[in-house]
Specification:
It contains nine helices and twelve strands. The protein is of the alpha+beta class. Among the domains are: 125 residues, no CATH class; 45 residues, no CATH class. This is Lipoprotein.
């Protein structure tokens, strides 16, 4: 008779163990479901930049000629943004505008890559008055290019709920001192490294075709950036004109060529007629280094197109891996 209680005790223990196992399984399934739901709800999405730009306006901040960025507008920065806009910020009562760029990313990895690029640019180019503000949660980055006050930059950062990089303004004071010292002399290509990048661009805009003889790649690059940012171009003789004038000249040239062709003349059209075509020719010739290089066109002049490949892992300030001229006849001249 003593065996009966023992059997009942063992049965109860087994039953309790089974119930406990079922509850653990249910708990595990519930936890897995919650994690799956949480993971799904945390799926990264991009922020609507139009709303941020509209908020700038609502907060009384300048947004001059906002437009979606093209490949050329990215400059040398990593082109990993899902969406990006470029616009002008009014520096002060003088009405002078400085460029600003705002990016939206699909993931924080791409945001961090671009942030590192602009942070490094701000340090390596005598600060170049390059300021970076980000928000990891919304995956938004804003880059300010120009001699702007900390107070003004902070207003834009606050409006977009962005946090400025701590080192931005620590470097800007030293760059301001550098700007003062370099203004006391007239920079030449021999001491261009003493200039800030912004000063270099301004100097190149005052150049003549004769001044450009013997220019370094850095000077040509700054010149191309300055032309693009200010809506300028060069005529066939190398003189600076507005982009509208350039377009008009190009339109007249094409009409003349078409007229010559219809009359049996020798006004044959160019072999290379667009930036995209020039970039493709350069990439076909030199490759992309296993995907590490990104090719882009900086500007067009009377010779053809200045095309370069950038590598974010390159140690130079501009991350230039290769730069060439793709001539209108399809030939390539290396720099």
């Amino acid at each position: 008779m003593k065996k009966l209680p023992i059997i009942l005790l063992v049965s109860s223990a087994l039953l309790f163990s089974a119930c406990s196992t079922d509850k653990k399984a249910e708990s595990s399934d519930s936890t897995r479901t919650k994690l799956t739901t949480s993971s799904s709800s945390q799926k990264e999405t991009t922020t609507d930049l139009n709303k941020i730009i509209e908020k700038f306006k609502k907060d009384g901040l300048t947004v001059d000629a906002s437009k979606a960025m093209t490949k050329e507008d990215f400059g040398m920065a990593p082109m990993s943004a899902k969406e990006a806009f470029i616009f002008g910020i009014q520096k002060d009562d003088s009405g002078e505008n400085m460029n600003a760029r705002i990016f939206s990313f699909e993931n924080t990895k791409d945001l961090d890559t671009t942030k590192s690029y602009y942070d490094e640019l701000g340090k390596s180019s005598a600060a170049a008055f390059s300021y970076t503000a980000t928000n990891d949660k919304t995956k938004v980055l804003m880059q300010f290019n120009g001699d702007l006050s900390q107070e003004l930059v902070q207003k834009y950062a606050d409006s977009a709920d962005l946090k400025l990089t701590d080192s931005n303004f620590a470097g800007s004071s030293s760059s301001s001192e550098s700007a003062v010292s370099t203004e006391q002399t007239t920079p030449t290509s021999g001491n261009a490294q003493e200039e800030t990048y912004e000063q270099l661009k301004q100097r190149t805009l005052k150049s003549t075709p004769t001044n450009r003889v013997g220019w370094s790649n850095k000077e040509w690059e700054a010149f191309g950036m300055a032309l693009s940012e200010n809506g300028l171009a060069m005529d066939d003789n190398g003189y600076i004109i507005t982009q509208a004038q350039k377009d008009q000249l190009e339109s007249e040239r094409q009409k003349n060529e078409q007229s010559n062709e219809s009359q049996g003349g020798h006004g044959a059209p160019k072999v290379v007629t667009s930036e995209a075509q020039a970039v493709q020719i350069a990439q076909n010739q030199y490759g992309d280094n296993g995907g590490a290089w990104t090719w882009g066109c900086l500007y067009e002049d009377e010779r053809g197109y200045f095309v370069k490949a950038t590598d974010p892992n390159d140690g130079t300030m501009t991350h230039t891996a290769k730069s060439v001229f793709v001539n209108y006849d399809g030939s390539i001249t290396e720099n």
